[in-house]
Predict the structure of Retrotransposon gag domain-containing protein.
Amino acid sequence: MDWSDFPHLSQHHRELAEHMAQGLGEQALVNLLHCPPEQHVARLEQFEAFVFGQRRNASEARNEALNRTVETLSARPAQPRPIRMDPPKFDGTSPHTIVHWLLTVEQCGVAQLIEDDTRMVSYAMSNLRGKASEWAYSALMANADAFPSWAIFKAKISAMYQPPNNEVLLMARFFGARQAKRSLQEFVQEMRSLSAFINGEPIPERIKVATFMNGLRHWPIASGPFQKGASDDGRVN
């Protein structure tokens, strides 16, 4: 384009004319330049206003869409994230631990956001070892619906590995526990675990303390470590 034929157009207006040709085609520019010269500037400025308006509308539409997205996301409740926790493995060699193991599996399942019964059973079975694992998978091989729910799985594995006189055995272990060569902290932990395993009528606190004191290798200066925890030298934590 030889702009020398259009001295009345500034550099800005010439750039607008080229932009018009790019956006609307060369014919649009030809039509413009065939108009009387006094109309050139006004029409180019109309085109400029149109382009700015289109850009503004597009920007506003993008901002509105972004705001709607932000509002939608803000309105959604915060989704909890699973916490990676794994229970100890159960092999069936310590029957008195089955109650504690099942409780631990449930707590780990909650932390990992496992709500479906089928997944919960699968998760528990993945933490079985040895004879306990063989028992569970043999049951599934014999009957695919052997464990249709978490409650049934718990009942069956408890019946299999928890002795009929489990409460009596646990009580006997609790009242016969001795510190021997273990640290005081290890003895405290055993007493707490045994107490937690007993599902019958709760043992009165005074009897727990008396049993604990009776099992100590040396009597500590401060009493009540079973209730509050103690360090190896007998001081209450």
The two ends are 92 Å apart (CA to CA). Residues 221-237 have pLDDT under 50 and may be disordered. The chain has three domains: 3-75, 95-161, 166-228. The chain has eleven helices and no strands.
